[in-house]
Structure formats: structure tokens, C-alpha cells
Amino acid sequence: MTMVDAAAYLRRIGVAGPVRADLQTLAHLQERHQKSVPFETIDFNLGLPIGMGEEAVEKIVDRRRGGGCYELNTAFAVLLRELGFPVALLPGRTLHNGQRQVLGAHSGHMMLRVEADGESWLTDVGFRWASRHPLRLSDRRRQKDENGEYLLTDGDEGDVVIVHNGVPRIRLETREREIEDFVPTLWWFCTSPDSPVSAGSVWASLVTDDGRVSLLDRTLTRVENGQLVREVLDDEAFAAACRRWFGIELDRLPHLPPGPADEPA
């Protein structure tokens, strides 16, 4: 990744340079990334190739798209390293899907350990319940954040369990991995009939000043004037919502459940 690419990436997330490799900058970059680059699984649904690292940077910066956690966090790692931050890729396992406890695939999630101001911090720009700002890895007290309250607890075999608003969300391994270590699980996500992103629902989510706007299949949920607003979208409205809320221009629709116009009278 060149300095020109880094400058383009910073413009993509609305950050004006120059930047320094310190905690204040890291927190700003993480928040701006979450507000600018959506988590979205449309390409998984369409069966399109999914890349990581510099391939994901091209998708995010040049094509102005979002992506899944592997795409977003490896791209963010590329940017952070270019800016002078030491970064490690850490594998995680999801423990809750928002409705019930689950036991997700091994290495089914990824987070970053970033060194700044002499300490290790956890960052994540690819998860619905991720903190808005970095979490201090060594701190076992409750950590307040714009997205709620976080508690890091010690799990078995040196793992760390990340609890968000009282709900265990991620079991994180602390041994650094290489990007190639995530390729088999990415292949599973892209090809398995049990995959939640290729054979399941279409998701998109982006942090806003009011909270978050989210798309699950045909249902768009957002906060407006302090009120939760929920809309069920037909095909035209789905494409318009992708454009308006997530900056995604679709040349074809993903595979969606039947829309309002398709329901029997």
C-alpha cells in the first residue's frame, strides 16, 4: 500500500492528514471507519469473490463499498500499518447473534490488536456490537463506550471473552495469526450451505450520529429523532436504501425473500 493509497483511504473515511500513530488518532480512525464504511454481505450473497488485505482496500476505497469482518478489519490493518501502528490479527469466535447464544465457527471473527501510547488496544470495524473506540486489552474493569459498556474477562487457554452490555459476544484468541490463516474459514463462509452470509440473510450496517442504520434482508431499521423507525422494502426501495444509507450502487439485487408486492392479497 503506497502513501497515495493511504491518503485515499483517509479521504474515504473523512480523515484529514497528517496523522500520528497514537491512541487519540487510533480512536478517531476507528470511529470514522465505522461511520463511513458499512459492514455488508451483499457480495457473499451474490457469490462474488471476497478478498482480504489490499484486495479489500481496493473494494473499500476505489469501489466505495463495505464488506464483512475479514474484509473490513484486514483493510483497516493495512491502513494502520502504513500509518506506523504495530498491528496483529487475532481470531475470534462469536457467542451471540443478537437473539440467542450461539457458538460460531472457529476464527469466524477477527479483531485487531494495535499498539499505541505504550499499550495494547483491541479495535474492530467489522462487527455490529463493536466498540466505537479502542478497548484497553489489559483492563478487566468495565469500559464505557458510545456503543455501550464493555467488559473483558479471562477465558480458558489465555482467551479473552468480550462482554457487551452484559452479553458475551466474542471469545478472542490472543495469539497473532497471519492473514493466510483465515483463508479456510473465508472459503467456508463463501461456499457452505450452512454459512450465515452466503446461504443466509443479507446484512448491512453503519454507525450514524443518531446510533446506527441497519438492513436485514428487506427490513431497514434506523433511529430518527430519537425514535426507532422500521421499514419493509420492495425491490426498488431496497436498491434506493442501499444507495442512500450505505452508499452502495447495485447493478443487480442480491437474493432476497419475497417482498411486499409478492405477498398474497
Automatic annotation (TrEMBL):
<dbReference type="Pfam" id="PF00797">
    <property type="entry name" value="Acetyltransf_2"/>
</dbReference>
<dbReference type="InterPro" id="IPR038765">
    <property type="entry name" value="Papain-like_cys_pep_sf"/>
</dbReference>
<dbReference type="InterPro" id="IPR001447">
    <property type="entry name" value="Arylamine_N-AcTrfase"/>
</dbReference>
<protein>
    <submittedName>
        <fullName>Arylamine N-acetyltransferase</fullName>
    </submittedName>
</protein>
<comment type="similarity">
    <text>Belongs to the arylamine N-acetyltransferase family.</text>
</comment>
